[in-house]
Structure formats: C-alpha cells, structure tokens
C-alpha cells in the first residue's frame, strides 16, 4: 500500500511538473522565471513563434531597452520552446564556440548575440530556432555582419528566424 502511494505521488508530481514546464514554453509561463506575454499571444509551436509578430513584440518588450554602447540581449527559443538568454560580449562557451566556427580573419562577430545563438544551436544539434533581440543585427562585424556570419556558423539545412525592434521576421539559413 505504501509503495502504491509513493508511485501515485510520484506520478502526480511528474504531471504537475510537466504541466508547469509546458506553461513556460516560448516565454509564456506564469512563473517568475518567464514573463507572460502581455497580449496573451502565446504560440504552441516553434513555427508559430517564427510567424507571430504580436508574440515577438511581447518578447522584445520583456528585454532591457538598449542604449548606444549597452550590450545586446537576445532570447533564443529551441524546438521545445525553451528560452535561453544570450548577451553580447567576448566571454562564455557560446562565444568560444562561435570563434571556432568562424573562418574569417576577424573574430569580432563571435561576441555578437546572433553568432552566439547560431553556435548554441549548432552545438545542441538544433536545426530550427527563433531569436528575439533588443537591437538590429549589425552589418559590419568581421566585415560580413551578424546575419551572414550566423549563416556561416549554422550547418546547411538549419534555420534561425530573427525578430528585433521594428524588424523581422528575417530568416537566416545555414551554409556551413
């Protein structure tokens, strides 16, 4: 009897956890670690997130407002709807991975959110993701800019859809 109660309790806890985890998909949970979309727009699939301008605007609004000189911040969403926060800068495992994947004389772009996101996708084996940014992708880093550099990092067949204030969706297709 005691064993049966433990099994039932474990199942209930698992179902509760599973339901709580699914509520936080695509940044739409009610918990403190994931802000709920203000408009109520919450996609049920990654493809839906890639096309949902209202959802993207809500996610952009949840990011810090970026002033000139501030780091860029992005939210990367994978196939499970899991949110990964990425900040620009020359540190961290995503930065090191991006540097390794870039075959350009200048590695400056490796510190940009878009390149870090592409490296994160590649390392995780993700072939489709959505990236929401608080800044427009640059056109200058490493002489090619963020979008072209991200395509160079992503394997062929991979796709990353980007949204930023007053921009998107823009699709980057892998060419590595």
Description:
There is one protein chain. With 176 residues, this protein is an alpha+beta fold. The protein has one domain: 3-Layer(aba) Sandwich (Cytidine Deaminase, domain 2). It has helices at 2-23, 46-51, 53-61, 93-101, 113-124, 146-153; strands spanning 73-77, 83-87, 128-133, 159-164, 167-173. It comes from Saccharopolyspora phatthalungensis. Pfam families: DddA-like (PF14428). This is Nucleic acid/nucleotide deaminase of polymorphic system toxin.
CATH architecture: 3-Layer(aba) Sandwich
Whole-number count of domains: 1
What is the straight-line distance between the termini?
Answer: 58 Å
Note the beta-strand portion: 15-25%
Strand order of the largest sheet: 2-1-3-4-5
Number of helices: 6
Radius of gyration: 18 Å
**Structural class determined from secondary elements:** alpha+beta
The main sheet comes to: 5 strands, mixed
In percent, how helical is the residue content? 25-40%
Round the mean pLDDT to the nearest integer and report it. 84
How many E strands? Answer: 5
Organism: Saccharopolyspora phatthalungensis
Protein name: Nucleic acid/nucleotide deaminase of polymorphic system toxin
InterPro entries: SCP1.201-like (IPR032724)
């Amino acid at each position: 009897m005691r064993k049966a109660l433990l099994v039932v309790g474990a199942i209930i806890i698992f179902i509760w956890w599973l339901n709580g985890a699914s509520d936080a998909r695509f940044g739409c949970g009610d918990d403190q670690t994931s802000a709920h979309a203000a408009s109520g727009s919450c996609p049920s699939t990654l493809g839906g997130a890639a096309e949902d301008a209202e959802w993207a605007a809500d996610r952009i609004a949840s990011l810090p407002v970026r002033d000139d000189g501030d780091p860029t911040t992005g939210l990367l969403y994978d196939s499970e709807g899991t949110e990964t926060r990425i900040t620009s800068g020359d540190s961290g495992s995503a930065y090191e991975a991006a540097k390794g994947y870039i075959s350009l004389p200048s590695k400056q772009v490796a510190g940009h959110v878009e390149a870090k996101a592409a490296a994160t996708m590649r390392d995780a084996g993700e072939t489709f993701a959505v990236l929401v940014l608080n800044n427009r992708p640059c056109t200058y880093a490493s002489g090619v800019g963020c979008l072209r550099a991200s395509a160079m990092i992503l394997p062929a067949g991979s796709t990353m859809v980007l949204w930023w204030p007053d921009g998107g969706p823009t699709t980057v297709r892998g060419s590595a």
